[in-house]
Structure formats: C-alpha cells, structure tokens
Specification:
The protein is of the alpha+beta class and 312 residues long. The chain has three domains: 65 residues, Roll (Structural Genomics Hypothetical 15.5 Kd Protein In mrcA-pckA Intergenic Region, Chain A), CATH 3.10.290.10; 91 residues, Pseudouridine synthase; 148 residues, 2-Layer Sandwich (Pseudouridine synthase), CATH 3.30.2350.10. Helix content is 19%, strand content 27%. Helix 1 crosses helix 2. The relative contact order is 0.12.
C-alpha cells in the first residue's frame, strides 16, 4: 500500500482536488485519482472525502492511500463491440469509445481482451499474457477499427506489417481552429514529456521518429473548427493527438493536449476515430480494406456544426 500526504498551498485555492492531485502526483492519472477518491481512499483534514470536484480552500492536509494492486483476472466477460470481419486467423473490430483495450491498473475487468476471450476459443499465448491477440492499440476514448490476431503466425505477420509501415490507417479528427492550407505534414520526433510524465511531447530530449500527414475535409468557420483526414505514417503513443496539438489544432475534447477550450466545440472525449484500415492478409496475400462509420456522439457534433454554418 502506498500513501501520499500533501498540504495544499494557498495558490491552489479554488482548484478541484482531483486536478490538484493529478499535478502533484506524477505516477497517477487524473482518472485514477478520481476513482480512488470515489472509492473512499482520501482523507481531507482527517475526514473521508468522496467528491473529486471538491474545491480547495488552501491549507488543507490531504492523505491519499493507494491500495495494493488487484490480481488481474482474464476470465471471459461479455463486452459489447462490433465485429466488422472475422475468419480463422483474425478479426477486425469497430471499437466503441470508452472501451479499454487490455487490463491495467484501474481497469481490471470489462476490457476488450475480456470480451475477446468470451468470443474466441483459444487466444492464450497469442501476443502476450495480458494482451492476447492484440496487434496494435487505440486509446480508451478513440473509436474505430482495430486488428486482432487469433494465432501466433498471424500475430507475427501483422506486427511485421505495422513495423514495415505497410498497414494503411486513416483517422478522422475534429480539431480546434481552421487550417490555412488544405493539407500538411508533421515530421517531429515524439517522446515522453520532460515534465508531465503522463504526456508525450515533440519537445522530448530523446524523441523517436514520428510522421503524420493530414488533409482538410470540412471547415466550420463559425465554430472555429475543422474536420481532418489524418494518416499516421509511424505509430508512436498519442501521435496524432500530440502532432495536431503541436501545430495549433488540438483535437476537440482532448483534455490532455489542449482540446478543451473555453470557446469552440465541446465534447466529453477526444473526437478521434480510426476510420479506415488496409492490410495484407497473412494467409491469402489479399489486400483487405475496411471502413467504420463515425460513432453517434461524433456524428451528432458534426451535424450541429454543419447546421450552424447554414444559419445566417
């Protein structure tokens, strides 16, 4: 069990307690802190507090306890997701927003992996103990197409295609601001942020090569936003989110990378969708291509922006 003890400085007066703790504790995310507070692991001035939105007054003493990690269970569970394609070697899944890919701290049940184990007979050993079948990943709040391998041969072959940049991925992203050009390319290495360890950054001292190309699909001048078609040529963590933010166009709803602005469109998650996916089937050698429609929240927001553009 781990414990954090802090005294709130006066300059933090009025700040939410979960936000304050997320800035102070590098090895816990804001969502993890929120969950710990809601589960009763925080004492404020010696009294239990279960409200993450509590506004600090300054001078309080905080005691946050992190219980020992739970043993991760990989028992099959019924988890909702759409299967776009399936054969004896692989699946193509349309992942809904909010679904975590594999078990980790704070997400011990209800992940995509638990759902896959309920659907596919034998994934044991394919791709690792806690990530059976997973070839690549999408962030929790990113929706769209995801590849899953059913056997080691397919997993190795698909992983090699990703490494060789032969898998074509196209995303749709709703961003703040309207680009001045119709297309662009961001070629900036990405690594762990030098200060905020939960973030990735183009200013990291030891960044790895990262290249993202984008094309303008729609302008929403009245809302100061745009819909982009995005092609990541490499596969770094948070790559699209980091690169678009670095050119002044953070993804709408992306709290981590500046996408929650006081003006412009609002969303409860980042508006990023893995729209198209193309790869060579390891067994048949055939090129397969798939497309996933936008989820309801993304589509509804776009329709609202389009309607606003039509108003006088």
């Amino acid at each position: 069990m781990k414990e954090y003890r802090l005294v709130v400085p006066q300059e933090a007066r009025g700040e939410r307690i979960d936000s304050f703790l997320a800035r102070q504790i590098e090895d816990l995310s804001r969502s993890q802190i929120k969950r710990l507070i809601e589960e009763g692991h925080l004492l404020l001035q010696g009294e239990p507090l279960s409200k993450p939105k509590y506004r600090l007054r300054g001078g309080e003493e905080i005691r946050l306890t992190v219980p020992p990690p739970q043993e991760i269970s990989l028992e099959p569970e019924e988890v909702p997701f759409e299967v776009v394609y399936e054969d004896e070697d692989l699946l193509v899944i349309n992942k809904p927003p909010g679904l975590v890919i594999h078990p980790a701290a704070g997400h011990y049940h209800g992940t995509l992996v638990h759902g896959l184990l309920a659907r596919v007979d034998d994934l044991s050993g394919v791709g690792g103990e806690l990530r059976p079948g997973i070839v690549h990943r999408l962030d929790k709040d990113t929706s769209g197409l995801l590849l899953v391998a059913k056997n080691d041969r397919t997993h190795l072959a698909l992983s090699q295609q990703f490494q060789d940049r032969k898998v074509e991925k196209t995303y749709l992203a709703l961003v703040h601001g309207v680009p001045s050009s119709n297309w662009g390319r961001v070629d900036r290495p990405i690594g762990r942020h030098p200060v905020h360890r939960k973030k990735m950054s183009v200013h990291a001292p030891r960044g790895r090569e990262a290249v993202t190309e984008w094309r303008l699909r729609e302008r929403f001048k009245k809302s100061r936003a745009a819909l982009l078609e995005v092609h990541p040529l490499t596969g770094r963590t948070h790559q699209i989110r980091v690169h678009l933010s670095s050119i002044g166009h953070p993804i709408v709803g992306d709290e981590l990378y500046g996408g929650c602005r006081p003006t412009g469109p609002k969303a409860s998650r980042q508006m990023l969708h893995a729209w198209r996916l193309s790869f060579v089937h390891p067994r048949s050698g055939e090129t397969l291509s798939f497309e996933a429609p936008l989820p309801d929240d993304f589509q509804t927001l776009l329709e609202e922006l389009r309607a606003r553009e039509q108003t006088p």
